[in-house]
Each structure stands twice: as C-alpha cells, then as structure tokens.
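Model: Ready when you are.
Researcher: Fold this.
Model:
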Amino acid sequence: MANIKSQIKRIGQNERRRERNKAVRSELKTRVKNAVTSQDEAAIRLALKRIDKAASQGVIHKNQAARRKSRLMHQLARVQD
C-alpha cells in the first residue's frame, strides 16, 4: 500500500474508473446481444449509441468502436438474408 497521500488518492480514482469501465463494457455486451437477438430497430440504435458513448468516454478506443459497429451491422445483415 502506498504511503504518499497523492498516490493513495490516485489508487482510489483508478478503482472507481475501473468499476465504471467494467459496468459500461458489460452494458455494451448486453445491448449488442439484445440487438442481434431481437433485431428491433430501436435496440440496434441503442446498441450503436452505447458503443459511441463508450468511445467518447474513453472506455474503448474509437477504432474499436468503429470495428464493433461494423461487425454488428454485418451480423445483422447476415441474419436478415
């Protein structure tokens, strides 16, 4: 455990961020799964919105967000055929 006050604060900040990021990633997986299974337009829009929001918050990289959106749309196109 750190003895320096600023480092103790930094450890707490990192832990809170880790918990938030974990929750956001979990929600992303749920939204994408719901979009694929239901194929509802509202669910698809919500999944894409959550992916963009996670990228803007810095939870995932912008290129990863683009890749996830592309794969989601490709998967939905394959299911609709």
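Researcher: Now this one.
Model:
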Amino acid sequence: METRALTKADYDQIVRVIDRWWEGPSTALALPIFFYELGSLARVVEWDDGTMVGFMLGFVADRPAGWSKSSGVPESNARVGYMHLIGIHPEYRRRGVARALYAAFEASCRAASCTVIKAITTHGNDGSVRFHLALGYTASNVEDYAGPGRARIVFEKPLT
C-alpha cells in the first residue's frame, strides 16, 4: 500500500467513484477547489497492484486571533488541519487504508505548524465516531454547526 499526493487523474477518478463508494450522491462534496486551490495536502492510497483504494481531501486553515467557536471562547492564532473528505473503496475497508491517510495528513499538518486537526461528521455515522475516537480525537456535539437545526459531531486532535 502506497500513500502519495493527489494528481489531476486521481481527482477525476474520485468524482467518478465517490457516489458508489459512499453509497449515495456525494459528488458535490468533492468540489474542484479541493484539488486546484487546496489540494497540496490531499492524498490517495494505492494498493500494491496500483488500484486507488482510498483518498483524502484536506487542507490547512489559519484561525485569526479573536476568532471564536460556537462556544464563544476566543482563541489565539492557530493553524488548523481540516480533514474535509475521505473515501475508502468498499472492497478495501478495514485494511488500514484510512489510518494510512490520516497518518499522512497528520504528518503534513505537523510540517505545516498546525496546532490541531479537525474533522466533522453527521449524527448516526457511528463508524466515523468510533474511528476518530480510536485515533485520539475528542468528539463534541455542536448544535447548528452547519446551519439552523443541523448539528454535527466535531472531532479535534491537538498536535503537540
């Protein structure tokens, strides 16, 4: 298994397979901005035979001083690694693909001087919750995170 940087050919393949891998309409989550503008940290995993078996779209964002989360607590300047989207080929799940992608992303975030990594999921995605907790993330329910009446589970992992 090899983890490497995302290419345009990989992005094109992702938009072809994401609906099947996620078992529903999800192509809108793989916006071109995550390749063209924010793609420097995006990664794919290839199996030994060259088959793309996983992908991750993530980026680094700067939180300006005084920015506050929904809790209203001001925070200092911080670089945040944001894990936007991950997809694992259904036939290759539970083989360490997601862990490899998260490890590569964490290493990139450390190199970019991030202080925290953040990921989001919807309620009911119990597999995502278990996975993130196993990797050392904390989980918080944030009401109205994605707009009124749209709570999300927000994962954070400090990088020290």
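Researcher: Key takeaway?
Model: The domain at 1-63+77-94 is CATH 3.40.630.30 (Aminopeptidase).
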